[in-house]
């Protein structure tokens, strides 16, 4: 899944070209993220594998960031590393449009 920010905040993380950092999830990563979020009480219905162009609302994105942040201590080191870097992106993306991408 490749979520594309809808309205990134000024303080959103940027790449070296000053473009908003993108989230990139393999099918395995997406499955793991959805499973954990569901266990943490976050509505994962908008995070689907087959909804090209569907919107993930900004409010849900902030809930995702908050859930990841509050549960970092429960994660193994490898999972904690890749989810920690995504917290500011989820928090500042202004919502996302999600796209399936082959090869991730």
Q: Which range best describes the helical content: under 10%, 10-25%, 25-40%, 40-55%, 55-70% or over 70%?
A: 40-55%
Tell me the radius of gyration: 13 Å
Mean pLDDT: 89
Uncertain segments: none
Shape descriptor: globular
Work out the helix count. Answer: 3
Strand line-up across the major sheet = 1-3-2
| Total beta strand runs | 3
- Report how far the terminal alpha carbons are from each other: 8 Å
H/E series: EHEHHE
**Major sheet size, sense and barrel closure:** 3 strands, antiparallel
Structural class per helix/strand content? Answer: mainly alpha
Strand content: 5-15%
Summarize the structure.
By secondary structure, this protein is mainly α.
Blueprint (SSEs and pairs):
Blueprint: E1 2-5, H1 27-39, E2 55-56, H2 58-70, H3 77-92, E3 96-99
Antiparallel strand pairs: 1-3, 2-3
Describe what you observe in this structure:
By secondary structure, the chain is mostly helical. The chain is built from three helices and three strands. Strands 1-3-2 form a three-stranded antiparallel sheet. It starts with a strand and ends in a 5-residue tail after the last strand. The model has no long low-confidence stretch (mean pLDDT 89).
Give keywords.
mainly alpha, 104 residues, 3 helices, 3-stranded antiparallel sheet, single chain
């Amino acid at each position: 899944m490749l979520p594309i920010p809808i309205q990134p905040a000024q303080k959103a993380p940027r790449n070296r070209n000053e473009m908003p950092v993108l989230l990139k999830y393999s099918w395995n990563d997406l499955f793991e993220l959805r499973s954990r979020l569901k266990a943490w009480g976050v509505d994962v219905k908008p995070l689907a594998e087959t909804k090209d162009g569907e919107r993930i609302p900004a409010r849900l994105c902030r809930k995702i960031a908050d859930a990841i942040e509050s549960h970092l201590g429960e994660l193994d080191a490898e999972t904690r590393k890749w989810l920690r870097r995504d917290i500011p992106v989820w928090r500042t993306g202004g919502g996302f449009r999600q796209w399936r991408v082959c090869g991730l």
